[in-house]
Design goal:
The structure is a single chain. The chain is of the alpha+beta class and 470 residues long. The chain has 11 helices and 17 strands. 42% of the residues lie in helices and 26% in strands.
């Protein structure tokens, strides 16, 4: 242990006394932060100018004047989408955007009570079949659920400013599916409409005007847009007291989990994008820390002072990895904090883009993970430097594996981009991801791939050191 500490101190002394290593470290931090400052000041988004809610469903309704209620059993529901909705709805009218409240059942998220495009209360986690009841008393709307139609569980009571005369009844909706696909240079978001279906029976409406008109089935439809997935499709077939209803679209908005935000960019990743260029200086640093000694012949003195070559390599790895991690952490934190004002001025604001904090779990993972990415790249470069011994050759080799795929592979084909992202050292950049938009490898799995490269490179370097002269 004492001998290793002596070697470690020697490597640290060499690291901080060589001008080229200090310059590379400074360049890595400066380039990362400067590019982030330039990039975020030029970026912009119009996400908050897009519609902030969707009001689309198939509504089977009757008029209600004043207080009253509707009860029905959702006999079955098609699992067309995890947030497909079948339930009871009271609404100021069929005009899109008019005030509403609903109690509903979903295939994967149980019973919910929702209102006004921004309120979502969770009820029992049960699927259909499920009894539902929606009661209005003035501006108070209460939703209930029951497994047998007798023992009722209150889901919640909400205050909604409804006029005296409203429409009340059954509705079915099924949000569009959003599919993220890797394309050359990024991701594209595809939209596919889904059609939900549900069967209702034992439908009863109480209150003034409830029996004055037969049931009417109509589509509620907002203007077609990217967020809503187009005009909904719906239909009603009825046999006695059994209603078979189909519908598409969604009644949703910010604050309701089924709403698909138009903000698909990863704000945290954008805040750390400069590291993709700053990594070049880290590669040069990792290579020079070893090849400089080969070029000057100092490596012989190093091995005389520390004949255990494995200890020498381990000491170099500890000094290099630790120093780059600290510098990378400084660069990542600075980039993140500097980027936020620029992103905010470019339109990355709530509700489409909630402001992120450095102390948020995913943000902190991305920032610390970026520092770990740089440290692992430095260690990988160190291992390659031992194997190749020549500065230019080693730098070119590592740059070809780490930097070039980011520029060239996306142009070749989306499939090539996917496999390069999974199998090359750039997989480590997945640790910066905080939004699932076309991810082809998870954050920790990606960092694990890069860790594998570093371990293999250092293992081969140790083997090479033991079998040839300095």
């Amino acid at each position: 242990m004492t001998s290793f500490l002596r070697v470690l101190r020697g490597e640290w002394t060499k690291f901080r006394s060589v001008r080229s290593t200090a310059l590379c470290l400074l360049a890595a931090v400066a380039v990362t932060v400067l590019l982030e400052l330039l990039g975020t000041s030029a970026g912009s988004t119009d996400a908050n100018e897009q519609p902030r809610y969707s009001d689309q469903a198939y509504f089977v309704h009757k008029p209600l004047a004043g207080d009253g209620s509707v009860v029905a059993r959702v006999v079955s529901q098609q699992s067309s989408h995890e947030w497909a909705k079948a339930g009871l709805l009271v609404k100021a009218g069929i005009t899109p955007g008019s005030p509403y409240a609903a109690v509903l059942v979903t295939p994967d998220h149980g019973v919910r009570m929702q209102a006004m495009f921004d309120t979502d209360l969770a009820g029992p986690p049960d699927r259909a079949p499920q009894w539902l009841k929606l009661t209005r008393v003035g501006s108070s709307i209460t939703g209930y659920a029951s497994a047998n139609g007798q023992d009722w569980h209150e889901v919640g009571t909400l205050t909604v400013a409804l006029p005296r005369d409203v429409e009340i009844g059954l509705f079915v909706a099924s949000p569009p599916s959003y599919v993220s696909t890797r394309t050359g240079g990024g991701t594209s978001i595809g939209i596919r409409n889904t059609i939900g279906a549900a069967i209702f029976d034992d439908v009863r409406v109480t209150g003034a005007l409830a029996g004055s008109r037969d049931w009417i089935g109509q589509n509620i439809s907002t203007v077609p847009s990217k967020e809503t997935g187009g005009v909904p499709i719906g239909d009603l077939s009825r046999s006695g007291d059994t209603f078979n209803v189909t519908g598409s679209g969604d009644i949703s908005g910010y604050g309701i989990a089924s709403w698909h935000s138009p903000g698909d960019d990863d704000v945290v990743l954008l805040s750390l994008f400069g590291v993709r260029v700053g990594v070049i200086a880290v590669i040069a640093l990792g290579v020079l820390f070893m090849t400089a000694e080969y070029r000057t012949g100092l490596i012989r003195t190093t091995f005389i002072a520390g004949p255990r070559r494995g200890q020498v390599l381990a000491a170099k790895a500890v000094v290099l990895g630790g120093t780059v991690f600290v510098a990378g952490l400084i660069a990542s934190v600075a980039s993140f904090l500097i980027a936020q004002p620029g992103l905010h001025s470019g339109g990355y604001n709530p509700p489409a883009y909630p402001h992120v904090s450095l102390l948020d779990g995913e943000s902190l993972r991305a920032v610390v993970g970026t520092a770990a990415f740089l440290a692992l790249i430095a260690l990988f470069s160190l291992g390659i430097a031992v194997l190749r011994r020549r500065t230019v050759g080693a730098i070119v080799f590592v740059v070809a594996l780490v930097v070039v795929p980011q520029l060239v592979v996306p142009v070749i084909s989306p499939d090539a981009d996917i496999w390069a992202t999974r199998l090359t050292p750039i997989a480590g950049l997945a640790v910066q991801q905080t939004v699932d938009a076309g991810q082809v490898i998870g954050p920790w799995a990606g960092l694990g791939v890069l860790c594998g490269y570093a371990v293999v490179a250092l293992g081969l370097a140790r083997w090479q050191l033991g079998r040839r002269d300095a």
